Amino acid sequence: MKQMRKRILSIVMIFALALSVYAMPKAMPYMTYASADYGSTQLEDYARQVAGIVNRERAANGLSPLKYSDRLSEPALVRAREIQSSFSHTRPNGSKCFTAITEAGITYRTAGENIAYGQRNPEEVMNAWMNSSGHRANILGANYEYIGIGVTYQNGTYYWSQFFAASSDLSGEVITLGGSATKATQDATKATVATTQATQAATKQTVATTQATQAATKQTVAITQATQAATKQTVATTQATQAATKQTVTTTQATQATQATQAADNNAVRQNNSPRVWVLELIKILSERYGKNC
User: Fold this and answer.
1) In this structure, are residues 148 and 69 in contact, taking their beta carbons and an 8 Å threshold?
2) How confident is the model at residue 274, as a pLDDT?
3) Three-state SS across the chain?
């Protein structure tokens, strides 16, 4: 009888224990997500600096800061690696860039992406993005809440990516960065503007110099043409003078010949009018008429 009671009591206890276990709320499976692994402290620091500069730029434009998300940075890192071989917002497999976010288990209401390569530090890449209208629009997007940064380095070149998102999946998994790199960005921007202005001024000066050179060349050509015309005129005048001189020489020679002829004629006349000539002529006439007896 006692053994029967023990068995019944054991069965009841087991049944009660089973009911209590069934009634307990089931534990939700624990989901883990990959955190961003930059591979080096420098690259991670660069990523945080970029996020800090973004927030400074947003503050300067009256916008709330974006929260840096380590979880959102993982797909950003995936994209930073992908653009090493295919620099495009389309992934190497042909899908859109935002599929990297959903593959990381993140749903979003809106998202944006910036990519770049070749810039040597956060200041340079942020300066490049802020001077590009499309990239600047993402950085200053009013509807975004979170930012993830990807930075990789290969064969001496840095590759950069940013993911912007509004998502309830990222709540509580983010940090807010301040950063102090905005001044450097502003200084770099000012330096770029100054360089651009100097280049424009130099270009204007070059254009002015070129125009002045062209004007001087035209003036030189005009002077050369005038000189050539004057030279031709001088040659013509010289030739005319030489011809006139020859004509004068010919006229002088003719005059001299005429004068010589007249002088000879005058001399002959003078000789014919002398008494001796008349006597000789008379003797000649008498001899012819009377012969030797005269």
Assistant:
1) yes
2) 64
3) CHHHHHHHHHHHHHHHHHHHHHHCCCCCCCCCCCCCCCCCHHHHHHHHHHHHHHHHHHHHCCCCCCEEEHHHHHHHHHHHHHCCCCCCCECCCCCECCHHHHHCCCCCCEEEEEEEECCCCHHHHHHHHHCCHHHHHHHCCCCCCEEEEEEEEECCEEEEEEEEEECHHHCCCEEECCCCCHHHHHHHHHHHHHHHHHHHHHHHHHHHHHHHHHHHHHHHHHHHHHHHHHHHHHHHHHHHHHHHHHHHHHHHHHHHHHHHHHHHHHHHHHHHCCHHHHHHHHHHHHHHHHHHHC
Q: Which residue has the tokens 């990519």?
A: 115
* Distance between CA atoms of residues 170 and 182, nearest Å: 26
Go through the chain and tell me how many residues it has. Answer: 294
Sign of CA dihedral 17, 18, 22, 28: positive
Q: Are 50 and 160 in contact (CB under 8 A)?
A: yes
The per-residue pLDDT for range 159-204, each reduced to its tens digit, is: 999 999 999 998 644 444 444 444 444 455 456 546 657 767 776 8
**pTM, entire model:** 0.51
52, 111, 98, 128: CA torsion to nearest 10: -40
Q: Please answer whether residues 53 and 179 qualify as being in contact, where contact means their C-beta atoms are separated by less than 8 angstroms.
A: yes
Angstrom distance (rounded) from CA 61 to CA 66 = 13
Upper half-sphere CA count for residue 292 (Cβ side, 13 Å): 0
Terminal alpha carbon distance of the chain = 235
Q: Phi-psi bin for 172: left (phi > 0), alpha (psi -120 to 50), beta?
A: left
